Amino acid sequence: MHAAFTTLKPEGVEDSVSMLNADMLDRVPQRGAYRSRWRIGDPYHPEPVHALELGRSSGGGGGHFPPFAGYREAWTHHSLSLAIGHAVLAALRDAGLLQPELRLHAGERAGGYVRLFLEQASEADSALFTQSLAEALGPLRRPRYVIPRLADVEQSTRLSRWLPRVIGQYFARRVRQVVMVHAVPAALSRSKREAGLFEHRWNQYVSPGQAVYAHRGVGREIMEVARQQGLVPMAVPHHKEVFV
């Protein structure tokens, strides 16, 4: 009943009791909301749906801001995961690999976990999307193409440090920099044209950046430097089967 048990080993339970108890106690006054989520009496699909579950360590927002004009809210784990999910979904549609009417669902779970899946998707479409999203968010496993993720990182100034936080935040400056390098999903890496489709949607939803071939040349150097500097995803997203 708690997403942390996906990765929590028996020997780690004792150290996590306080966190687990706090999350469980937070749920108590929300019984009505959780009961409505069960949708008791509503029709449901008896076939499981492929889903991807991501912990905060899966490349969450980290307090960085979307690298687009006019954004005042920093990325959160939920908003960043959703943006990357939309980029993957749209690129797979553009390539003709998914049905155009499919919609992405992203739900937050206790412990800071996010679960993403396609609503009313076929087994094949659901599996393809989940695998592609896992590749985009997970560790680099010799990808054919990679793409950088930029973010506007807030840096304090002398004035912002001197003023109270509620006012000083308006005097901090933002510096755009590479914060992570991601794999282009294998399904969209079979040709330069397909990688370009992913690049276009990545630029639309997530970040400016160019998809580059990673097996030689500049792309290989980018990937090696990113690994050395810790700018690659480390956590492995978890595949789930859920009923909706």
N- to C-terminal separation? 16 Å
Number of strands: 7
Question: How does the overall form come out from the CA principal axes?
Answer: globular
The total count of helices amounts to 8
Helical coverage, percent range: 25-40%
| Class from helix and strand fractions | alpha+beta
Q: Helix and strand succession? A: HHEHEEHEHHEHEHE
Largest sheet: 4 strands, antiparallel
What is the radius of gyration? Answer: 20 Å
Residue stretches low in confidence (pLDDT < 50, at least 5 long) are none
**Strand content range:** 15-25%
Widest sheet, order of strands: 2-3-1-7
* Mean pLDDT metric: 85
Number of domains: 1
Question: Short description, anyone?
Answer:
This protein is an alpha+beta fold. It has helices at residues 13-27, 31-38, 77-94, 123-137, 158-162, 165-168, 192-205, 217-228; strands at 49-54, 103-109, 113-119, 145-155, 173-183, 212-213, 238-242. Strands 2-3-1-7 form a 4-stranded antiparallel beta sheet, with helices on one face. The protein has a 3-stranded antiparallel beta sheet with strand order 5-4-6, sandwiched between helices.
